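Hi, here's the filled form for the chain we discussed.

Project: internal
Contact: R.S.
Residues: 89
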Amino acid sequence: MWTGSVISDELTARVDGLKQHVEKSLAALFRARCPSANRAEINRAAATSVQLVKSFLRIAVTGTPKQQREGSAELKTVLFMYLAPVLGE
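And the returned structure, exactly as it came back:
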């Protein structure tokens, strides 16, 4: 979660649990949108989507308003381009 940070085992477990919950929820949404998609591919797409969002969080939190807007637009573009073939769009 935080590179170089020392965090408790309990916090690590809770963060991992939250990440898994979000991935499962995304996978369920993706399956509802595209029921014929391969389950393994959907699960991988959900996990990758979570990692993509995490990678853009720093800009969303610490960037200038302009960087935040640009980062948000970039994230939307990246997610759309990545998910379109997976979800058959």
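Let me know if anything looks off before we file it.
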